[in-house]
Model the fold of this input.
Amino acid sequence: MLISIVVPVYNAEKFLPKSLESLQNQTYTELEIILVNDGSNDGSAAICEQYASTDKRFVVIHKENGGVSSARNTGLKRVTGEYVGFVDPDDWIEPDMFKRLYQLTQEYNADISMCGYVKEKADGTVLNTLEQPSVTSFTAKEALNTILNDDSFRGFLWNKLFSAAILKENPSLELDENIHFCEDLLFCCKAILGSKSLVYDITPFYHYMFHDNNASSSQYSLKKLTSLEALEQIIEMLSEEANVNVSMYKSYYMRMNLSLLMNGIHENKSSTDTTRYLRKNLFKYSLSELNSKSLRFSCCISRVSVKTAYLIWKFTKRN
Done:
């Protein structure tokens, strides 16, 4: 079975060789590795071409810069494999990652297989807690009720292998190029909803590199505001689905909204219109729909007085 792997590339020359080498050295060799150069202005394009010139499994597509979702969508249109995976250009993977993910789809008759990940610094320092090895299978509804849990497989694209049939059966299943945060969560929820079964091996085959390019000190930006749109789409999509805990997504929405509101004030970056928008969102869902007492308390205080809520938030943050 051919596996297509989409790699969106933008100004990643420092990390790209290690990432592509880890793909080239996969023990599962029936691969189609699609490198989408998204208008890089460093040496990334040349590195992509170098790998393609020596290994016919690498395919390079050059395009004008349009963002990571645009690059991924371009790659998705080119895939020919029976399964589709994603790898980011500054990360790297264990040699057996795609062999294991493919094995899982066969052993569990799964439409989507998933693995654990290591979040690490360039010096190898591991930033997340690694759990004991285990394999868990899910129905689509069970997966949708698990994806937001801190110890779950989460809504990332890069630790999953998708059956291409899911993509073909749902032509609208692509990345929303107008959403810059939680766009991968939105994609994953759509894919899961179209699947029958999933399987998760918690073994960390994927290495997510934490560095200056993805470690912004700012907790507020206009791009981060688009995460609310992604969550609104997910909530609307799942609202009529039986046995799906939609309140979990509404709570996530409210936590995100509160974070943007408080950090926007704290960093003095939120415009009057944006602050008004975020304050209005505090009333979007009833308090009874939220899944924790602390969240309900924060929303309640913020509804009465954003200034008071900010002072409490600032005190809590400082301590």
The domain at 3-214 is CATH 3.90.550.10 (Spore Coat Polysaccharide Biosynthesis Protein SpsA; Chain A). The mean pLDDT is 94.
